């Protein structure tokens, strides 16, 4: 299927605010057809341009008085330009004029033009009296032919120069460039003329493309600002609906302190409050992190995912959340939580649409520039050669195409603003047993472990820290309890902390039985 149809179908799947600000691919294609028509009217068909066009040679150092630069945009101008010896030699031996495609102006006003060198026949007649500006010719005697002789179309017997013919072609659509140059080549006299031909429809093409890219960039900036505002509001909503035990159960929550508490006597009752959806939100965010919807953190697949893969993973995340009953009244106790979940899913779907939109626009620009080069045979500097050869105008134009970074910025905003609202259990786990490090012991080296793992290390006589090998394990005691972190875990992870305490107590009781010679796995026998 042609890209034009694929692109149109893709835009139909996007929201109206994105679809209306996309690159108008078909309109740019029509302008390319007009460029081809304009070049053909000059006698420069794509096949002929392929034979004539070449990169611009290096600037010369010596001045050659036989070269004149004439701009069709200004018939009054008479500027002398230096003709490199290699161009003149090439012209004499090849039988064709030299043509160079250039882009001047700025990124917002690119002015394409053709610069060509052609042979100009010597005029047979000239008049001495004329008020027009004279045109310099090659002559040791400083002979000049006044422009009246060269531009007087009605004067009988006058042989018109190429300069006159080109200007008549520009003004009145007289003989095309191919016919003019063909006639001129049969009268090579050694005098070479440089001509600059501005391309009207090519200028319109780049103007429309630059305007479209600027509009896309402005729209994406607005989208990003609105996204940041929405995610800030969502973070406040989730924060209010996922409050810890110290807020929802203030009467029963008592922080511990080394001055008033004994670490071995701490108990954590289950304080799951009816006023908080903390546990449901933690489960949702855990599923979201595991889904890796937009970026993978695996060693083999690390990096940004494709649009297709992101769409697939977002769908799987929604299915897993539904299967666990997240979002209904059984899991979510607060109405605002259910609304916040819908907003969260909507933000991820919007990121996916922006990702589609950005990639589609970038591909549309790449395709239209490639089509421009193929249809017109006008090589864009740096597009068909090394990227380092990009002209300043194209470099600035392509800078507006870097819209694919916005989806990644949005994903980072979720990871930096939204997900940290709910503390993640893995951030507070023991590095030895990998479960929550409740009753955390911070060694003198600064590393943190749960009390049960350190007690077992001390019993085995292992005195070095598992992380840095510092000899600090055997010297650890109850003064190494991190009371602030203990209160934080009891506040945000009351269920997990209770489960860890019960598991520690069970394991300690089994060890004591084995030390007494009893097997905890066998039933009790009373003699």
TrEMBL record:
InterPro entries, alphabetized: SPX_dom, Znf_RING, Znf_RING/FYVE/PHD, Znf_RING_CS
Transmembrane segments: none
SMART domains in the cross-refs: RING
Domain RING-type, residue spans: 430-469
Stretch list, region Disordered: 58-78
Domain of life: Eukaryota
Keywords linked to the UniProt accession: Metal-binding, Zinc, Zinc-finger
Cited Pfam families: SPX, zf-C3HC4_3
Limits of the SPX domain: 1-386
Example of a GO MF term: zinc ion binding
PANTHER family per record: RING FINGER PROTEIN 127, TRANSCRIPTIONAL REGULATOR OF YEAST FORM ADHERENCE 3
Protein name: RING-14 protein
């Amino acid at each position: 299927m042609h890209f034009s149809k694929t692109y149109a179908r893709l835009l139909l799947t996007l929201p109206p605010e994105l679809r209306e600000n996309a690159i108008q691919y078909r309109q740019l294609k029509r302008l390319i057809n007009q460029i081809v028509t304009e070049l053909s009217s000059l006698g420069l068909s794509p096949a002929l341009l392929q034979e004539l066009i070449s990169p611009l040679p290096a600037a010369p150092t010596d001045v050659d008085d036989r070269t004149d630069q004439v701009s069709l945009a200004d018939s009054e101008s008479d500027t002398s330009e230096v003709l490199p010896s290699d161009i003149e030699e090439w012209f004499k031996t090849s039988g064709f004029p030299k043509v160079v495609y250039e882009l001047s102006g700025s990124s917002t006003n690119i002015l394409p033009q053709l610069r060509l060198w052609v042979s100009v026949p010597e005029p047979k007649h000239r008049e001495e009296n004329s008020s027009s500006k004279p045109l310099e010719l090659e002559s040791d005697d400083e002979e000049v032919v006044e422009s009246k002789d060269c531009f007087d179309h009605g004067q009988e017997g006058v042989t018109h120069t190429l300069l006159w013919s080109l200007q008549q072609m520009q003004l009145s659509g007289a003989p095309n460039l191919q016919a003019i140059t063909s006639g001129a080549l049969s009268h090579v006299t050694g005098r070479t003329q440089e001509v600059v031909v501005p391309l009207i429809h090519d200028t319109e093409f780049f103007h429309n493309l630059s305007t479209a890219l600027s509009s896309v960039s402005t729209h994406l900036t607005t989208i990003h600002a609105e996204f940041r505002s929405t995610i800030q509001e969502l973070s406040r909503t989730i924060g209010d609906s996922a409050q810890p035990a110290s807020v929802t159960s203030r009467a029963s929550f008592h922080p511990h302190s080394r001055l008033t508490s004994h670490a071995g006597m701490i108990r954590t009752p289950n304080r799951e409050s009816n006023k908080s959806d903390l546990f449901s939100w933690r489960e949702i965010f855990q599923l979201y992190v595991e889904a890796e919807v937009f970026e993978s953190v695996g060693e083999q697949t690390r990096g940004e995912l494709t649009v297709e893969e992101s769409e697939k993973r977002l769908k799987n995340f929604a299915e897993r959340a539904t299967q666990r009953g997240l979002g209904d009244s059984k899991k979510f106790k607060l109405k605002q939580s259910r609304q916040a979940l819908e907003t969260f899913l909507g933000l991820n779907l919007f990121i996916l649409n922006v990702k589609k939109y950005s990639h589609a626009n970038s591909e549309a620009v790449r395709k239209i520039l490639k089509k421009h080069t193929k249809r017109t045979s006008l090589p864009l500097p740096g597009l068909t050669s090394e990227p380092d050869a990009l002209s300043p105008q194209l470099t600035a134009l392509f800078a507006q195409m870097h819209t694919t970074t916005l989806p990644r910025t949005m994903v980072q905003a979720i990871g930096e603003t939204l997900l940290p609202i709910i503390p993640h259990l893995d951030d507070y786990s023991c590095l030895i047993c990998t479960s929550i490090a409740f009753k955390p012991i911070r060694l003198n080296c600064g590393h943190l472990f749960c009390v049960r793992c350190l007690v077992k290390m001390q019993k085995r006589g292992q005195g070095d820290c598992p992380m840095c090998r510092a000899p600090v394990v055997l010297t650890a005691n109850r003064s190494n309890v991190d009371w602030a972190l203990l209160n934080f875990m009891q506040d945000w992870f009351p269920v997990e902390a209770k489960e860890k305490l019960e598991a520690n107590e069970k394991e300690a009781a089994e060890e004591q039985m084995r030390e007494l010679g009893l097997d905890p796995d066998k039933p009790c026998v009373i003699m």
